[in-house]
Specification:
P-loop_NTPase, ATPase family associated with various cellular activities (AAA), ATP binding, alpha/beta, binds magnesium ion, 15 helices, 14% strand, ATPase_dyneun-rel_AAA, five-stranded parallel beta sheet, binds adenosine-5'-triphosphate, Rossmann fold, ATP hydrolysis activity
């Protein structure tokens, strides 16, 4: 995919000679295929798999919490069901929501028992889908209108469920879902006077829960999880990850990448005291943008002018941008 460079000048409307750039294929560059889990994280995942317990991940934004779930699903060849937590989420949303208004409206215009059947008004949430996914097709059919299985059902089998950013939810949510999460079941009140749907043994969902802080989570919830905190990334691993991701763009390594790494790790030093330290994700954006920067060649050192033009990918506060711009000039001058 390519598009025109934005020029931002009052005289430029539709440029006579547009300057085209090849934009970054985000899915290819940032995708989970090239995710590399650190050893401790790999061990925590395996402990969670072994014990059938949820894995709770914390860590700074951009350290790879969400993408771990995507990589896990990819590697185990399980479908991934995602629950994106909102400030209004309640425990039941993890399993299903019921459209009471829709059913009421349908009842105004129809007396058809099939049209009014409760299964027409159920929308399964991520964990609900994963539990249904574990069931034999014959059993799962009972939950759907006219026994028609939905497109997302590919069971019987296991699935990865990502409950992303659980700390966004009201504090009741983790407590309210404790038993259901632990025992992989839920109850649909509107079906058959309260139908219990329970994951088939050996086909239980693999649950990954992310949070930007473990502080708000109740001890009873933490007790049921395998916990792993992602530490900020080290130099060698970040180089490896960046190299693999740049290779997907057919970009070579060289002094440019080494200087970019140095700038990144310098900026993370306590003495710069950045309001928001850049993360793995921001570094990858920085090198991806640099790879498209005219004149920034992989085999040459990083020039301050090039660094400054793509600095907005790396630092996210006004005072941090000033520090980073100054630092990139000092680093270049001292080479
Ligand atoms: N270990 C890793 N290996 C490869 N890429 C990584 C790794 N960690 C992070 N990334 C890159 O960083 C990006 C952001 O990761 P992700 O969205 O998982 O972070 P996060 O911890 O969930 O952040 P947030 O808390 O802001 O949601 C990913 O798209 C990926 O490109
Ligand atoms: Mg995330």
């Amino acid at each position: 995919m390519s598009c025109n460079w934005f020029q931002g000048r009052p005289d430029v409307m539709a440029p006579a000679q547009p300057v085209e750039i090849e934009s970054i294929d985000r899915d290819r560059f940032f995708g989970p295929e090239n995710y590399e889990a650190e050893d401790g994280l790999r061990d925590a995942v395996n402990a969670a798999l072994l014990l059938d317990q949820p894995l709770l991940l914390t860590g700074e934004p951009g350290t790879g919490k969400t993408q771990l779930a995507e990589k896990l699903a990819l590697e185990l060849a399980f479908p991934l069901f995602k629950f994106e937590t909102k400030s209004t989420s309640v425990a039941q949303d993890l399993f299903y929501t019921f459209d009471h208004v829709g059913r009421f409206q349908t009842a105004q215009v129809s007396k058809d028992a099939a049209a009014l059947h409760a299964s027409n008004f159920i929308d399964f949430g991520a964990l609900g889908k994963a539990v249904v996914q574990s069931l034999q097709a014959a059993e799962a059919r009972a939950l759907f209108p006219a026994g028609n299985l939905p497109a997302w059902y590919s069971g019987p089998g296991r699935a990865v469920v990502l409950i992303d950013e659980i700390d966004k939810a009201p504090s009741d949510l983790p407590n309210d879902a404790l038993n259901e999460i632990e025992r992989h079941y839920f109850r649909i009140r509107e079906l058959q006077g309260g139908l219990e749907v329970k994951a088939a043994a050996r086909q239980r969902p693999v649950l990954v829960i992310t949070s930007n802080s473990e502080k708000q989570l109740p001890d009873a919830f933490l007790r049921r999880c395998i916990f792993y905190h992602l530490q900020p990334i080290g130099h060698e691993r970040l180089r490896r990850i960046a190299l693999r991701r740049l290779a997907a763009l057919q970009v070579q390594s060289g002094p440019l990448l080494e200087d970019a790494l140095q700038l990144f790790f310098d900026l993370r030093k306590p003495e710069y005291d950045l309001r928001k330290r850049p993360s793995t994700a921001e570094f990858l954006s920085f090198v991806a943008a640099l790879s498209r920067e005219p004149g920034a060649l992989p085999e040459q050192a990083l020039q301050p002018a090039h660094a400054r033009r793509v600095l907005a990918t790396l630092v996210k506060a006004p005072e941090d941008q000033t520090v980073a711009a100054r630092h990139s000039m000092i680093a270049a001058a001292s080479r």
